[in-house]
Amino acid sequence: FASVIYNKPLNRAQDSCSERCGELLSNCSCKVTCQSLGICCLDYKEFCLQISPYSGSLMGGKDFLIENTAFNVSSVLTCRFKQKIKTSGYIAKDGKAHCISPLLYETGFIPFEVSIDDGLTFPYSGTWLSVHHSKVSDKEKCTLVNETKWQYYGTTNTDGNLTLTWTHQALAATHVNIEVWGYHETGDSYSENWLAEWKYLYTLAREIPNNGKLSFIPVHAEGNYSTWDFGILRITPSSYSEGQSNIPSIWSNEHALAWHLGKDFRNDPNAWATSKCIEWDRKEENLPNFMEEIADCPCTLAQARADTGRFHTDYGCDIEKGSVCTYHPGAVHCVRAIQASPQYAAGQQCCYDSTGAQILTHDSTGGSTPDRGHDWGSPPFMKPPRIPGFSHWLYDVISFYYCCLWSDNCHFYMKRRPSSDCRTYHPPRAASVFGDPHFLTFDGLNFTFNGQGEYVLVESDLTSLRVHGRTQQAHFPNGTGAQGTGLSAVVMQENNSDVIEVRYSEDLKLEVLLNQKVVNFSEQTWMDLKGLFLFSTPDQNITVMFSSGSGMEIRGNGGFLTLTVLLPEKFTNHTQGLLGVMNGNTEDEYTFRNKTIIPVHASPQQLFEFGANWAIENGTSLFTYDTEFLLNNFFYGEKHNASFLPVFFPYEDPADPLVEEMTLLCDSDPFCRFDVLTTRTLQVGSSTRLSHQNHKMLVEYLKPDTSLSLVISCGWLDHPVNGRKNGTSYLLGSSINFICNQGYELTGSKERICQVSGMWSGDTPIC
Questions:
Q1: What phi and psi, each to the nearest 5 degrees, are found at residue 197?
Q2: For the CA atoms of 246, 521, 699, 591, what is the dihedral angle to 10 degrees?
Q3: What range does the domain containing 301 cover?
Q4: pLDDT in tens, 719-737
Q5: Which is it for strands 90-91 and 465-475: parallel, antiparallel or unpaired?
Q6: Strand, helix or coil at 408?
Q7: In angstroms, what CA-CA distances link 337 with 297, 301, 546, 570, 702?
Q8: 657-666 and 682-701 helices, crossing angle to 10°
Q9: b/e map of 392-406 (b: 16 or more CB within 10 Å)?
Q10: Could you tell me the pTM of the whole model?
Q11: Are 44 and 126 in contact (CB under 8 A)?
């Protein structure tokens, strides 16, 4: 800990950060926290690199600047990623060093080092964020103007010129080459020798002026290049040799290469695509059935949007962006399962109509289709089927072109990618902390605990999940301390994942720390990290999605944090801490560390004792102590400040002018009233009321199994042969009617209703 050297005289010149970034040395520190503590080794800024930009596509070719260190212009610069992938760097006229990012088959933070002695030693180090190709801003890519035309070129009524545009300032060159690259996977599916490769195919245009535009009439690719039907374009300075890897580049979007396919495609695209579709269908026949291990969909749109630990908006169909759902006609919103399935790394997708009901492919082409390859890839990446974006394109997207877009054989595709319904879906349980801290437990109890210190909010032995909270004293509008506290920081980890901390800084800015380092969301709002995904909305709602499916949402609100924890059903009877024992039984909610229990109707003083019992134990803290204030008040101080006594029953004085305003604002919300009285501000009361309402809505959407308004699905029903059906909702209470075609008579049930048992009423209709 920093405290070891924080209080002793430093001889900081003795130690060096060369090859030691991130370490605590005997006389000084090379950890990121050393700057705010004033204990850095003297050469910390020289060896521990800050870069700009800090992220780019996993395709590589991005030039980034090393901000903090100037080098001798004659140095030979080598950049090395993951200790093995070398790319050439250069030193600009101003003495600043630059590296070029490499082609990687993974996303996330990638360690890199820099050598200035032609690769003998690599004393300088930093990290580069590799991101999914579709998450890179359009400005960084070249644009296929009218992308649909490129991907349908050669089919009926699609011919003529194709145009490519790019930002010419992005490459420091007067002339450029434009190359075609293809992606393929070799070896046996789901075996050790299954490998992914991006391969240079040929150069489309040589030494053309770097003016930002190329128009051309495509000719079919020569020889066997036309067997490559999925790929990408790359623009590079002409001074480099063709196909050279890891050089300054601008890539296009990955796309279906219809425009370069051979004569057999151009002569009869439908026949060509049909044979490809049938070939794909035969191949699928021999692959393992990934459908058996993907999780079922949430039953309703409300559930899908509430289960943020396990499902995230599918950017191709987003209700908040106007529901432009090109591939899912009739849908207003789709979500994707965040985690890939365990063995086959497959993905789930769920789509919903304007009534909030799930759309199934059995009923509509707008239905959701699961994926053999998860679009976002999955750790440890590197090999199929886990390559971000591109494995998915190969198994699930190009095949959609073969069967559904370039030919009329969509039934083949839908047979292999049918929607999952929601029969085995169980919503997660929610718990929240907000305001002058009010705790709403997993089993639905609520209490107020105004301790000051650092506490266990929830821990689970199931996945070594730990979520700790820090509370600090609230203040009156005039700046003096109030007799209440609020959540000022939350920190969390599961198994050996990265550690995420969300806190208010001393100047009341919301900060997110990843392994003690402040995260900058200016370039990327979604990050693939170790054991979790991290997402920030523009207004700084932070979501942490752990690989177990547990989710944490943190919002800044009126100077305090609001935390919501979502835990899947498997955590039942595996939680402890201030948010209770999640098991549907309120009697054991207030369980101490030693397993003694206080009753549900305990007094505020007893609950204060319960809270104090869950103060975190020294040595188990996940928090970052990187300021004098935090060291003195929380690191050296008691984890529960026993001398701080809060108000248990704030007094409502009828003559107090604030009481009337409070009654108007809060109505009967007890938490809102409590917070207005303890902090003397309506603003705190208002954000408490909002957090309380949000929690109640969330719980309503995620009704647990014990409730009668549980979302029950009876599963899909087919229409009878020689007949049809009316209705596509399969949830509790829905009815489906059957009618026979002319000349046929119906036996069995004309109408079937979905019952509480999860079974359809009546008998199968036959015409």
A1: -150, 130
A2: 100
A3: 269-416
A4: 888 888 888 778 777 888 8
A5: unpaired
A6: coil
A7: 8, 14, 12, 17, 17
A8: 20
A9: bbbbbbbbbbbbbbb
A10: 0.89
A11: no
